[in-house]
Amino acid sequence: MELGLSGLASGFDWRTFIDQLMEVERAPQKALRSEQNRILERANAYRSLQTELEVLQNRLKTLLDAGLYASRTAQVADSTVLTARAGAGAAPGSYSVEILQLATASRLQGTANAGAPLSATADVSGLVLANAPFATAVTAGTITINGHQIAIETSDTLQAVFDKISAATGGAVTASYDPTTDRIQLSSASEIVLGSANDTSNFLQVARLYNNGTGTVISAGALGALRLNATLASANFATPVTDGGSGTGEFKINGVSITYSATADTLATVLERINNSAAGVYASYDALNDRIVLTNKTTGDLGIALEDVTGSFLAAAGLSSGNLQRGQNLLYRVNGGDPLVSTSNTITEASSGLSGLTLNALQTGTTTVTVTTDTEAIKSAIKQFLEAYNRVQSLLDNYTSSTTDAKGVVTAGVLAGESDANEIASRLRNLAFSPVSGLSSIADHLADLGISSSGNDNQLKLSDESALDQLLQNNLGAVRALFADESVGVATRLNAYLDRLIGDDGTLIQKQTGLNRQSTAIDQQIADMERIVQATRQRMIESFTAMETAQARINQQLQYLLRTFAQTT
Q1: DSSP-derived pairing of the beta strands 410-412 and 402-404
Q2: Virtual torsion, Cα 13, 14, 20, 22, nearest 10 deg
Q3: Residue 122: per-residue pLDDT
Q4: What is the pTM of this model?
Q5: Contact 59, 381 (CB under 8 A)
Q6: CATH number of 1-71+374-404+412-432+470-569
Q7: Mean of pLDDT values over 191-195
Q8: Which of 9, 20, 91, 127 could form a disulfide with 551 if both were Cys (CB 3.0 to 4.6 A apart)?
Q9: Cα 376–379–385 angle (5° rounding)?
Q10: DSSP per residue, 228-282
């Protein structure tokens, strides 16, 4: 058993001595750990290089994609008439397009005044404003008639409001309700003036009463309206909605079934249910004319099919007897030809016969659409390739070169002296910038595209962009062959080389695997060495502990002898 403090008996701090000795024993471990750090730095460097090479390979694959050279762009002379998008393979050229008629959607308008009147009789003394089926709820506040302010409460009956108007104007203005027309009439022997800037109630607007410069003002339309947030049974339909007595009604729009409960579903809920269904129509409520409107979600001269299956929702809503305003098809001409038809304002190849060209008509008129090769996309792909290539070469240069500081101390790059890294930099440059045999002399070298190399740092630069523009405009095939020829293209050769480097069993992958194995082996070696150190330390502790125990026993015996001698003398 170890003593808490070493040297209590012997006076020798042996624990510190052991710790120092073990540090000496661990010196080989520290050397191995330093070696492991260098290995891991190399592995991380190769991993970073792999990442940049993967980016470069992606840029090469873009240059190898046939769709890049078939990409097109469309320019529209008058973009207020239409917009255009050219897909890959669209035939270059100019097209005169005349929009004769835009496509519109069909609308089925239910019969107006679908709601029941405010009252069945002229007696409105029991009709409380808060409960009256106006299109918009009446708010409390004040209104002004002929300069006289009148207070309106939502708890007032309509007749009470009429009485307040008469009282406020001294009988000069009287009000009444006509159940036949479902309108309010104000009468006076002189011109009636309604409203003021300080009015706080919306009663006049809800009642649709507006100045007309005469002594008679009548509501501009029927006042009874459907109530969106009330159940169908209490939504004030002029013709009550039934659900067939089963509790669940059903109707179909364009063959799609919609169900409802007259006592549980509100009108707003049913309209939302229609909108969210696959019926292909938008359902809305026209408060001004008190009617329900169905509008096709797609444009064109298309009908809307309706059927009450169980119950009477469509009939009560006035849709069964409604008016279908048929939509219009898009009519247009291309290059002065016969009119063409599309149900949509989007003109596709199927309608126009123009391969790869999509037009979106905005208004009637004539404009010119010009389709050309998208040289900007190709130029962008080439620039991105150069950027990725230069990043790889910069990384390689940083890893393989050495630097000297102000004191003359030389620091070697993490991959300095690595033949693989130096080989990659050299091979990439040769594959990228060497002339390609077997191609047209118009473009058999990146230099023909205005791309140059300094020769010192392996960087490539687009130094003459006009040369590239000219070749893209006049000799696109030669540019494509230079990069994408299946046998000798620059991108083809580079891509094949990168496959050998960073493919599933590529050189760099194997390199990283080997380095990681070395690191793992060092971990094991250090662990084995540390076990020996710990065993040695334990033996030494046990030996010194035994020594301390023996020394303590001797000290005790000595003290006993000294006390005995002292007593005898």
Answers
A1: antiparallel
A2: -160
A3: 97
A4: 0.66
A5: yes
A6: 1.20.1330
A7: 97
A8: 9
A9: 140
A10: TTSBGGGS-BSS----TTSS-EEEEETTEEEEE-TTT-BHHHHHHHHHTSTT-EE
Q: Is the pLDDT of residue 3 over 50?
A: no
**Smallest Cα–Cα separation from 290: which of 230, 221, 234, 239?**
221
Residue 88 vs residue 425, higher pLDDT: 425
**What's the sign of the alpha-carbon dihedral 487, 489, 492, 497?**
positive
Instruction: Tell me how far CA of residue 272 lies from CA of 44, 275, 281, in angstroms.
Output: 59, 5, 11
Reported as a single tens digit per residue, the pLDDT across 273-288 is 999 999 999 999 998 8
Q: Any idea what DSSP says for residue 214?
A: S
- Taking the C-alpha atoms of residue 164 and residue 353, their distance in angstroms, rounded to an integer, is 72
Per-residue exposure over 417-439, b if at least 16 CB sit within 10 Å of its own CB, e if not: ebeebeebbeebbebbbeebeeb
The structural domains of the chain, with segments of one domain joined by +, span: 1-71+374-404+412-432+470-569, 72-103+329-373, 136-218
Residues 6+ apart with CB under 8 A from 495: 57, 60, 61, 64
Mean pLDDT of the chain: 92
Across 459-550, where does the E strand assignment appear?
Answer: 460-462
Amino acid 48: pLDDT: 93
- Tens digits of per-residue pLDDT, 372-404? 999 999 999 999 999 999 999 999 999 988 777
Cα distances from 207 to residues 55, 201, 516, in angstroms, run 70, 11, 85
CA 322 to chain centre: 41
Tell me how far apart the alpha carbons of residues 439 and 66 are, in angstroms, rounded to a whole number: 18
Q: How far apart are CA 216 and CA 111, in angstroms?
A: 28
Helix axes of 490-502 and 419-433: crossing angle, nearest 10 degrees: 160
CA angle 251, 257, 258 (to 5 degrees): 65
Calculate mean pLDDT across residues 323-352: 96
How buried is residue 186: exposed, middle or buried, by Cβ count under 10 Å (0-12/13-18/19+)?
buried
Residue type (1 letter), 428: L
Q: Determine contact, residues 449/471, Cβ cutoff 8 Å.
A: yes
pLDDT band at residue 9 under the 50/70/90 scheme:
low
Bridge partners, residue 95, by sequence: 369
From CA 42, how far away is CA 48, in angstroms rounded? 10
Q: What is the DSSP letter of 194?
A: B
Q: Which amino acid is at 453?
A: S
Whole-Å CA distances, 431 to 450, 490, 495: 17, 7, 10
Alpha helices, H only, 455-489: 465-474, 476-484
In terms of Cα–Cα distance, which of 179, 177, 215, 178 is closest to 194? Answer: 215
